[in-house]
Design goal:
Elements (H helix, E strand, L loop, with lengths): L10 H50 L9 E8 L7 E11 L4 E3 L5 E12 L4 E12 L2
Length: 137
């Protein structure tokens, strides 16, 4: 019998290699949409934070007496290109002694800005809320 030198892969080795390669490709294909979804979610949260900060800066540019107490901006959808977001803004008097809102003006107001949006075909609501305190100068 002649002794042949093996210069290749057997069929079993080839099938195992193809199986491992297929599992790797399937993993990447499954992970790609998930990564895209996470990226979009992060982008929407960043936009919401910027919209909340924009409103907060608008309020902070006013003097204490110019900032009215109550609902400054009722929950409503924003204009284009932010129609997927809604924002509400309210201002209340604040009592630092009890860390709560009050009906008395103690020279401190608490401003709350909340921006909401929907993800996953409108099935899940997310929001960003920011607060700050303003006092008389």
């Amino acid at each position: 019998m002649k002794n042949y030198k093996r210069n290749g892969f057997s069929l079993a080795e080839l099938l195992v290699a193809l199986f491992i390669l297929t599992i790797g490709i399937i993993g990447v294909v499954i992970a790609f949409p998930l990564g895209t979804r996470i990226g979009k979610s992060s982008e929407m949260e960043t936009v919401a934070s910027e919209l909340a900060q924009e409103k907060m800066e608008e309020i902070l540019s006013q003097s204490y007496s110019e900032i009215s107490v109550g609902t400054i901006e009722p929950r409503q959808s924003l204009s284009s290109p932010f129609e997927n977001y809604s924002r509400e803004t309210e201002v209340n008097y604040y009592d630092p002694a009890v860390s709560a809102t009050t009906t008395q003006d103690l020279d401190i107001k608490m401003v709350r800005v909340k921006v909401s949006w929907q993800i996953a075909l409108g099935l899940l609501n997310k929001n960003v809320e920011i607060f700050t305190l303003i006092s008389k100068r």
